[in-house]
Protein backbone atom coordinates (compact mmCIF):
# COMPACT_ATOMS: atom_id res chain seq x y z
CA UNK A 1 0.00 0.00 0.00
CA UNK A 2 1.36 3.40 -1.01
CA UNK A 3 1.24 6.07 1.69
CA UNK A 4 -0.29 9.31 0.46
CA UNK A 5 2.16 11.28 2.62
CA UNK A 6 5.29 9.88 1.02
CA UNK A 7 5.36 12.74 -1.49
CA UNK A 8 4.44 16.34 -0.73
CA UNK A 9 4.19 15.94 3.04
CA UNK A 10 7.64 14.33 3.33
CA UNK A 11 9.15 17.11 1.22
CA UNK A 12 7.34 19.74 3.26
CA UNK A 13 8.66 18.24 6.50
CA UNK A 14 12.19 17.94 5.10
CA UNK A 15 12.15 21.58 3.97
CA UNK A 16 10.70 22.79 7.31
CA UNK A 17 7.58 24.04 5.54
CA UNK A 18 5.09 22.40 7.94
CA UNK A 19 3.78 24.32 10.92
CA UNK A 20 4.58 23.08 14.43
CA UNK A 21 1.37 21.05 14.73
CA UNK A 22 1.80 19.52 11.29
CA UNK A 23 5.43 18.60 11.96
CA UNK A 24 4.57 17.01 15.31
CA UNK A 25 1.72 15.04 13.75
CA UNK A 26 3.96 13.85 10.91
CA UNK A 27 6.67 12.73 13.36
CA UNK A 28 4.09 10.53 15.06
CA UNK A 29 3.16 9.19 11.63
CA UNK A 30 6.84 8.33 10.98
CA UNK A 31 6.82 5.96 13.95
CA UNK A 32 4.42 3.64 12.13
CA UNK A 33 5.09 4.31 8.44
CA UNK A 34 8.27 2.76 7.06
CA UNK A 35 7.55 4.13 3.58
CA UNK A 36 7.71 7.74 4.77
CA UNK A 37 10.83 6.93 6.81
CA UNK A 38 12.53 5.53 3.70
CA UNK A 39 11.41 8.54 1.63
CA UNK A 40 12.82 10.92 4.26
CA UNK A 41 16.08 8.96 4.38
CA UNK A 42 16.42 9.20 0.59
CA UNK A 43 16.05 13.00 0.80
CA UNK A 44 18.61 13.17 3.63
CA UNK A 45 21.05 11.01 1.66
CA UNK A 46 20.66 13.08 -1.51
CA UNK A 47 21.00 16.34 0.40
CA UNK A 48 24.11 15.09 2.22
CA UNK A 49 25.77 13.86 -0.98
CA UNK A 50 25.16 17.14 -2.79
CA UNK A 51 26.24 19.19 0.20
CA UNK A 52 29.49 17.29 0.67
CA UNK A 53 30.30 17.54 -3.05
CA UNK A 54 29.90 21.36 -2.94
CA UNK A 55 29.43 21.57 -6.69
CA UNK A 56 29.70 25.08 -8.07
CA UNK A 57 30.38 26.53 -11.48
CA UNK A 58 30.24 30.25 -12.18
CA UNK A 59 29.04 31.24 -15.64
CA UNK A 60 31.63 33.44 -17.42
CA UNK A 61 30.83 37.14 -17.74
CA UNK A 62 31.21 36.90 -21.51
CA UNK A 63 28.26 34.53 -21.73
CA UNK A 64 25.71 37.27 -21.06
CA UNK A 65 27.30 39.48 -23.70
CA UNK A 66 27.29 36.63 -26.20
CA UNK A 67 23.63 35.88 -25.60
CA UNK A 68 22.62 39.54 -25.83
CA UNK A 69 24.66 40.04 -29.00
CA UNK A 70 23.02 37.01 -30.58
CA UNK A 71 19.56 38.27 -29.63
CA UNK A 72 20.36 41.68 -31.14
CA UNK A 73 21.32 39.97 -34.40
CA UNK A 74 18.35 37.63 -34.54
CA UNK A 75 15.35 39.63 -33.35
CA UNK A 76 15.14 42.23 -36.19
CA UNK A 77 15.20 39.56 -38.89
CA UNK A 78 11.61 38.39 -38.52
CA UNK A 79 8.42 39.23 -36.73
CA UNK A 80 8.78 36.06 -34.67
CA UNK A 81 11.92 34.80 -32.95
CA UNK A 82 13.92 32.40 -35.08
CA UNK A 83 14.92 28.90 -34.06
CA UNK A 84 18.37 30.19 -33.25
CA UNK A 85 16.89 32.70 -30.81
CA UNK A 86 14.79 30.01 -29.16
CA UNK A 87 17.89 27.86 -28.87
CA UNK A 88 19.80 30.70 -27.21
CA UNK A 89 16.89 31.40 -24.90
CA UNK A 90 16.74 27.74 -23.95
CA UNK A 91 20.49 27.70 -23.31
CA UNK A 92 20.28 30.90 -21.28
CA UNK A 93 17.38 29.55 -19.21
CA UNK A 94 19.23 26.30 -18.59
CA UNK A 95 22.38 28.14 -17.52
CA UNK A 96 20.44 30.45 -15.24
CA UNK A 97 18.71 27.46 -13.68
CA UNK A 98 21.99 25.61 -13.26
CA UNK A 99 23.66 28.68 -11.81
CA UNK A 100 20.84 29.15 -9.31
CA UNK A 101 20.90 25.46 -8.40
CA UNK A 102 24.66 25.61 -7.94
CA UNK A 103 24.29 28.65 -5.72
CA UNK A 104 21.69 26.83 -3.64
CA UNK A 105 23.86 23.73 -3.37
CA UNK A 106 26.93 25.78 -2.47
CA UNK A 107 25.13 27.85 0.15
CA UNK A 108 23.70 24.70 1.67
CA UNK A 109 26.96 22.79 1.37
CA UNK A 110 29.05 25.41 3.13
CA UNK A 111 26.73 25.44 6.12
CA UNK A 112 25.62 21.80 6.16
CA UNK A 113 28.61 19.78 4.95
CA UNK A 114 29.97 19.52 8.50
CA UNK A 115 26.59 18.34 9.76
CA UNK A 116 26.34 15.80 6.95
CA UNK A 117 29.74 14.28 7.68
CA UNK A 118 29.15 14.36 11.44
CA UNK A 119 25.74 12.71 11.07
CA UNK A 120 27.22 9.92 8.95
CA UNK A 121 29.98 9.30 11.50
CA UNK A 122 27.78 9.22 14.58
CA UNK A 123 25.20 6.96 12.89
CA UNK A 124 28.02 4.60 11.88
CA UNK A 125 29.33 4.67 15.46
CA UNK A 126 25.84 3.93 16.75
CA UNK A 127 25.51 0.96 14.37
CA UNK A 128 28.89 -0.38 15.48
CA UNK A 129 27.82 -0.16 19.10
CA UNK A 130 24.80 -2.38 18.43
CA UNK A 131 27.04 -5.29 17.50
CA UNK A 132 27.29 -7.90 20.29
CA UNK A 133 29.72 -6.85 23.01
CA UNK A 134 30.30 -3.32 21.67
CA UNK A 135 27.61 -1.27 23.40
CA UNK A 136 29.29 -0.60 26.75
CA UNK A 137 32.78 -0.83 28.23
CA UNK A 138 31.42 -0.07 31.70
CA UNK A 139 27.99 -1.47 32.53
CA UNK A 140 26.16 0.37 35.29
CA UNK A 141 23.01 2.33 35.97
CA UNK A 142 24.87 4.35 38.58
CA UNK A 143 26.23 7.66 37.29
CA UNK A 144 28.75 7.66 40.14
CA UNK A 145 30.22 4.48 38.70
CA UNK A 146 30.15 5.46 35.04
CA UNK A 147 31.58 8.97 35.39
CA UNK A 148 34.76 7.95 37.32
CA UNK A 149 35.35 5.15 34.82
CA UNK A 150 36.30 7.75 32.19
CA UNK A 151 38.99 9.29 34.46
CA UNK A 152 42.42 8.77 32.93
CA UNK A 153 40.97 7.38 29.72
CA UNK A 154 39.98 10.77 28.27
CA UNK A 155 41.49 14.24 28.65
CA UNK A 156 38.12 15.64 29.74
CA UNK A 157 35.37 14.72 32.16
CA UNK A 158 32.04 14.05 30.42
CA UNK A 159 28.81 15.00 32.19
CA UNK A 160 27.04 11.83 33.27
CA UNK A 161 23.48 11.75 34.57
CA UNK A 162 20.91 9.02 35.12
CA UNK A 163 17.42 9.95 33.92
CA UNK A 164 15.58 6.78 34.93
CA UNK A 165 12.79 8.79 36.56
CA UNK A 166 12.23 10.61 33.26
CA UNK A 167 12.19 7.42 31.18
CA UNK A 168 15.87 7.31 30.14
CA UNK A 169 17.73 4.93 32.47
CA UNK A 170 21.50 4.98 32.16
CA UNK A 171 23.01 1.70 30.93
CA UNK A 172 26.72 2.49 30.99
CA UNK A 173 29.36 4.03 28.78
CA UNK A 174 32.30 3.42 26.52
CA UNK A 175 35.01 5.25 24.59
CA UNK A 176 34.34 5.71 20.89
CA UNK A 177 35.91 7.64 18.00
CA UNK A 178 34.25 10.50 16.09
CA UNK A 179 36.08 12.82 13.67
CA UNK A 180 39.27 10.96 14.48
CA UNK A 181 39.21 11.80 18.19
CA UNK A 182 38.32 9.82 21.27
CA UNK A 183 34.91 10.73 22.67
CA UNK A 184 32.74 9.62 25.54
CA UNK A 185 29.69 7.57 24.60
CA UNK A 186 26.94 7.41 27.21
CA UNK A 187 24.33 4.72 26.70
CA UNK A 188 20.69 5.15 27.67
CA UNK A 189 17.60 3.12 26.85
CA UNK A 190 14.16 4.41 25.89
CA UNK A 191 11.42 1.78 25.75
CA UNK A 192 13.80 -0.92 24.47
CA UNK A 193 15.50 1.54 22.08
CA UNK A 194 19.19 2.10 22.79
CA UNK A 195 20.30 5.73 22.71
CA UNK A 196 23.92 6.76 22.27
CA UNK A 197 25.00 10.18 23.55
CA UNK A 198 28.41 11.16 22.17
CA UNK A 199 30.22 13.91 24.09
CA UNK A 200 33.54 15.67 23.52
CA UNK A 201 35.04 19.12 24.22
CA UNK A 202 34.94 21.90 21.64
CA UNK A 203 36.23 25.44 21.27
CA UNK A 204 33.23 26.40 19.17
CA UNK A 205 30.51 28.65 20.55
CA UNK A 206 27.21 27.26 21.81
CA UNK A 207 24.84 26.15 19.10
CA UNK A 208 21.13 25.34 19.05
CA UNK A 209 20.15 21.75 18.24
CA UNK A 210 20.03 20.53 14.65
CA UNK A 211 18.56 17.18 13.69
CA UNK A 212 18.03 14.70 10.90
CA UNK A 213 17.82 11.01 10.08
CA UNK A 214 19.96 8.47 8.24
CA UNK A 215 19.40 4.77 7.61
CA UNK A 216 16.31 4.80 9.80
CA UNK A 217 18.09 6.40 12.79
CA UNK A 218 17.38 9.84 14.19
CA UNK A 219 20.18 12.16 15.28
CA UNK A 220 20.33 15.40 17.21
CA UNK A 221 23.43 17.51 17.85
CA UNK A 222 24.20 20.73 19.69
CA UNK A 223 26.96 22.54 21.56
CA UNK A 224 26.80 23.96 25.06
CA UNK A 225 29.33 24.99 27.69
CA UNK A 226 32.38 23.91 25.71
CA UNK A 227 30.95 20.48 24.93
CA UNK A 228 29.63 18.95 21.72
CA UNK A 229 26.67 16.59 22.16
CA UNK A 230 25.33 14.14 19.59
CA UNK A 231 22.39 11.84 20.30
CA UNK A 232 21.53 8.91 18.01
CA UNK A 233 18.77 6.31 18.23
CA UNK A 234 15.93 4.66 16.37
CA UNK A 235 13.58 6.08 18.99
CA UNK A 236 11.11 8.79 18.03
CA UNK A 237 12.51 12.29 17.34
CA UNK A 238 10.43 13.61 20.23
CA UNK A 239 12.26 11.23 22.57
CA UNK A 240 15.63 12.58 21.44
CA UNK A 241 14.38 16.12 21.98
CA UNK A 242 13.28 15.20 25.49
CA UNK A 243 16.68 13.71 26.29
CA UNK A 244 18.39 16.78 24.84
CA UNK A 245 16.34 18.95 27.18
CA UNK A 246 17.33 16.79 30.15
CA UNK A 247 21.03 16.86 29.25
CA UNK A 248 20.95 20.63 28.71
CA UNK A 249 19.17 21.44 31.97
CA UNK A 250 21.52 19.40 34.13
Write the layout of secondary structure elements.
Layout: H1 8-14, H2 20-30, H3 34-53, H4 61-74, H5 83-129, E1 138-139, H6 143-149, E2 170-178, E3 181-190, E4 193-201, E5 207-214, E6 217-224, E7 227-233, H7 237-249
Antiparallel strand pairs: 1-2, 2-3, 3-4, 4-7, 5-6, 6-7
Protein described:
The chain is of the alpha+beta class. The chain has a domain at 113-249: Protein Transport Mog1p, Chain A (3-Layer(aba) Sandwich), CATH 3.40.1000. Helix content is 48%, strand content 21%. It is built from 7 helices and 7 strands, in the order αααααβαββββββα. A 7-stranded antiparallel β-sheet has the order 1-2-3-4-7-6-5, sandwiched between helices. A hairpin with a 2-residue loop joins strand 5 and strand 6 (217-224). It is elongated and about 80 Å long.
Mean pLDDT: 79
Q: Could you give the order of strands across the largest sheet?
A: 1-2-3-4-7-6-5
| Biggest sheet overview | 7 strands, antiparallel
Globally, the shape reads elongated
Question: Quick gist of this model?
Answer:
This protein has 250 residues and is α+β, with helices and mostly antiparallel strands. The protein has 7 helices and 7 strands; from the N terminus they run αααααβαββββββα.
What features would you highlight for this structure?
single chain; 250 residues; alpha+beta; Protein Transport Mog1p, Chain A; 7-stranded antiparallel β-sheet; 7 helices; elongated
Amino acid sequence: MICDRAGAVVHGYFDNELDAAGAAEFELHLERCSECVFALEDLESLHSSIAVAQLYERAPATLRKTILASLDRELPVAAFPSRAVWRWLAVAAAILLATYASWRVTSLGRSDSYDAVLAAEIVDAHLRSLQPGHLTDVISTDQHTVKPWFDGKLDFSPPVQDFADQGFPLQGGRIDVVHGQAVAALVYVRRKHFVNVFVWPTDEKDRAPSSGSQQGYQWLEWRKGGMQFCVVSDAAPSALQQLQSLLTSN
